[in-house]
Every structure is written in structure tokens, then in C-alpha cells.
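S.,

Sequence below, as promised.
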Amino acid sequence: MKRAPKTRKNVTPAALMDAEKFLLPTYKRQPLVFTHGRGPYVFDSTGKKYLDFLGGIAVNGLGHAHPKIVEAVQRAAADGTSFGAPTAREVELAEVICERVPSVEKVRLVSSGTEAAMTAVRLARGATGRSKVVKFAGCYHGHSDALLASGGEPRGVIDSGLPGPKGNHEFVLHLVHREHPERPADLDRWIADAVG
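The prediction came back faster than expected:
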């Protein structure tokens, strides 16, 4: 028997069970199902308000449902939602980025952090000729097989990344020197600066 889709008004705590049944987990599940957000807050299916520290994994810099963002998205969506080819707005944005950031000559605009990380790894591999990258256990580098730090990656894919502990630059140096002993000595300082 098919169930009618739930709307925001009739979402109940039982929605959590539906989430477990129908959604693949990205992170360890918390006993929450959110129904909406306003500004820096999100609301669960019982109406409880939470301060949103996750921020849509960094994409909600202006908070949830900011009126100007909602208006701009509605205006843009009225022109079409996905083209699979460059758009005039995309070219304009790329031009502004290149003008404002002197070291940027070209950009690739993507829809998610996963795509951005995959692109960065591909560019780094192409520029260096190397195939391996360091992945940090307990961190999220995107949802592609090659970037998952743990969780049952297919054999062969896990071998293309070097899992390492979060925040341990000595271990990162060990991995890099083991894989590439020819690396310059100042790499140690660069990694120490990058990981703080």
C-alpha cells in the first residue's frame, strides 16, 4: 500500500523511522528530522528550534530562506533550472571571480563540495603526475569512492588514497616521504602551516 507524501504540517517523529528506512546515511544519524529553516535556525518535526552550526555543510552562509536569496533563486529558476552546458550567468560569475582573485585564470563551477574535491584531486594528479592523495580519517572529503577515508571502499579505490589521522601533520609527512622520498625539505614547513 502506497503512503501519501508527508507535508511539513503533518510530519511527526515517526519521520525518523522513515528516514532510516528510505535514506542512505551520509553521517551517523542523529534522532532528528528537520522540517524547515529560518535564518540561523532549523526546526525539527516536533517544532523544536535549533541553532544551525552545520549551515548546509557551508552553503548557507546567509542562513536559511533569506528573502533576497529566495527571490534570486526564484528569478533564476524561472529561466530554467539545469542546462548541462555553460550559461550566461555562469560566464559572468567566472569573469568576476577571475577579476577579483588575481591568481585565478579560469574556474570550474560545480554543484557540490564532492564535485569540487574530485576536480581538485584530478587537477592535482594531472599537474603532478602522481596518483595518490592523503585522506584524513574522521573527515568528510566528499562522497566519491576515492575520497572516502573509511567505510568499505571498493578494492583498488582505497589504494588510491592514503588514510591518515586528522590533525597529525607528522603522520602526513611520513606518508608523503614514504611515497615520494624526493620531495623538497620545505614541504615539512608547508604542511605544518596548512594544518595549523
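The two ends are 55 Å apart (CA to CA).

Coffee later?
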